[in-house]
Amino acid sequence: MADLDDQKFGKEFQATVAPAVFSTQIRGAGNLDWGMQNRLSHILNPDTGRTVMLAFDHGYFQGPTSGLERIDLNIAPIAGQADALMGTRGALRTSISPGSQCGLVLRASGGPSILRDLSDEYLAMSIQDAVRINASALAVQVFIGAENESRSVRNLTTLVDQGYDFGIPVLGVTAVGTTLVRDARYLGLATRIIAELGAQMVKTYYCDEGFEDVVAGCPVPVIMAGGKKLREEDALEMAYRAVDAGAAGVDMGRNIFQSSSPHAMLKAIRAVVHGNANSSEAYELFRSEAATV
Question: Which CATH class for the 34-260 domain?
Answer without folding.
Answer: alpha beta
